[in-house]
Amino acid sequence: MTASERKRLTKVAWGHRSEYGARVRAQIVLLAVRGWANARIARQVGAHLDTVRSWRGRSASPASSP
Question: For 44-60, what is each residue's pLDDT tens digit?
Answer without folding.
Answer: 999 999 999 998 887 76
